Amino acid sequence: MSGKYTEMWRSLGLNLEAHQGLLAVLSDAYKGIYLSQKNRPEGMKYFDLVISEVHGQRIVEIVEEKIKGKPVFGTFCIYVPEELILAVDGVSIGLCAGADVGAEEAEKYLPRNTCALIKAFMGFKLAGLCPYVESSDLIIGETTCDGKKKAYEILNEITGKVHVMEMPHMKSEEGKSLWMSEVKKLAAKLTEVSGKEITLEKLNEAAAVVWEKRRALQRLSALRAFDPVPISGLDALLINQVSFYDNPVRFTQMVNALCDELEVRVKKGMGVVQKNTPRIVISGSPMAIPNWKLHAIIEGSGAVVVGEESCVGERNFKTQADPQFPSVEQGLEAIAERYLTINCACFTPNEGRLDDIQEMAQRLHANGVIHYALQFCTPYMVEAYKVKERLGKEEIPYLRIETDYSMEDMGQLKTRVEAFIEVMKDGMAR
Amino acid sequence: MRYGGIDIGSRYIKYVVLEDTELSGVYKLETGYDPLGTCRDLMDKTRPDHILATGYGRHLLQTHHAVETVTEIRAVAQGAREVFPSCRTIIDIGGQDTKVVQLDENGVVAHFEMNDRCAAGTGRFLEIMAKTLGFDLTAFGDHCLGNGDNLTISSLCTVFAESEVISLIARGAEREAIAMAIHQSIANRVVSLAKRVGVKDAVVFAGGCARNRCLRSIFEKKLQQPILVAENPDILSAYGAALMARR
Fold first, then answer.
1. Cβ atoms A378, A72 nearer than 8 A
2. How far is A417 from chain B (nearest CA, A)?
3. Least Cα separation, residue A111 to chain B (angstroms)
4. What is the pLDDT of residue A2?
5. Which domains are delineated in chain B?
């Protein structure tokens, strides 16, 4: 995807040379990690195409939508209600944060010991590498963790277009009412930026689109419970990552088409790996595109990932809000309530997440759980202890990993993951 | 039948050969810049019927010679359990990894922890510090004096710890007391890793660092129990791999 998009990238203010370098690295990584997989479903071809056009055709589409008067809203968190963005005819985009780029630029503003995801979203912006952030009319942040909260202040200084939602950290009555008012504040802000009121018709329509999208992702998740599993963890992760920036209606159609194919596979007993391959659920920090590191290690070591208890995964689609609201007011309330069912580690207490992990491990017939935390992602790093306790009680093998986007610890991670797979196999043999 | 277990570590390649059930050869060579060449020489010399590779460089043999692999965690568990059948916990300090492995009653790996990414609390740390203080690595543990109460090395990072050592030298501190502080610093880190995994009796100390008497006695004090050390603690993983090759 070079020549034909150069003018567009230039007009968005990207650093053309560095951006070309990024795309080359991305394309090589994708070939090495994704296209080398065996027995991939045909339906993945669409997602391969989406990835190859992630900074190309999709940006063209977004620019065209902007010309038609549809504003673009960039987000970093699944707590930002997508329904509201769609209800003002906005385009909702999860912004670039999954690669170790622009770290030098980011470290002018941030301490070195900052989580890789925060450093990456600052780096992508500062190094001029993310066409999505450049196309955004408004960036919607949230006070989930301290690192993000403080980084948004700086991001706002640089871009002048950040709106921050205040997240409650307890799911108490006070927390709920704070969140409700934050959702309403966002609705007003979206109206201000787009010049469009949220009508009941628009809200119901938007909620139905998001509902269908979540249902398709739930369907995909359910299919991963079968043994042999019909799709690799890498491919499923990719689909979840793509869900944040693709056109939601088209995305839903393509996921459902893929699921039709996977159902046929399941009926035939066909899998992407052999039956009885050790199965792993990953739980923890989000894996933003193109962070495929842990999945690649696991699936390169003879196991398969069957689920992600993650924002880029189950947390994003596990619960639904019934999309037919009687009034805008009630709609906003139902949407706010639905979002508060997400069990993020920024909440205390957060027992619901432990239940979710256990439920997923059982439903997906996992032989073990790997807790994944980005270094310096304190909420997940600390909560790992509770996860370990719970899984220990349930006698589910558990491995804790802390890492970042760099490749320097690949050798150690591989040893840990392989040893964990050996432990799981011992358990399976018993 | 002849069985080989080869442990390609970051500093040394350890190789154990079994003639049926009898130990018939033990080799330890520097890993250097051509580990594959060294492994080939060892294999050519001994011609094992079955061989299993472990250690940091295990995939090298897998890629080039289709040798099956096992992680050093499982290998050391097998080796330690064979030498000490009562073993339930293994502390293994290698060149660039520190591992604590807990076994169940049957000797199967139940839990394990490894140090995070850097050289803190590993053999390499000890090696660099010995050099800074002008001690021979093999005798480093014999030169510790005092109980480590008056001096502490607080940095976990090898590079920063080295500069701490240098400033202690500059302040005129006795190098034997600094040596003690260095051993304490490693031991603290390893003990916290061990406590995270959970320590069960009996504890076996494996890896080249297990020859270090000072480390062993600090562990005994901190864990309040005797620590078992094999005659050749550095070959336990290779031995474990050889035992598994036999099965």
1. no
2. 9
3. 18
4. 57
5. 1-84+235-247 (3.30.420.40), 86-229 (3.30.420.40)
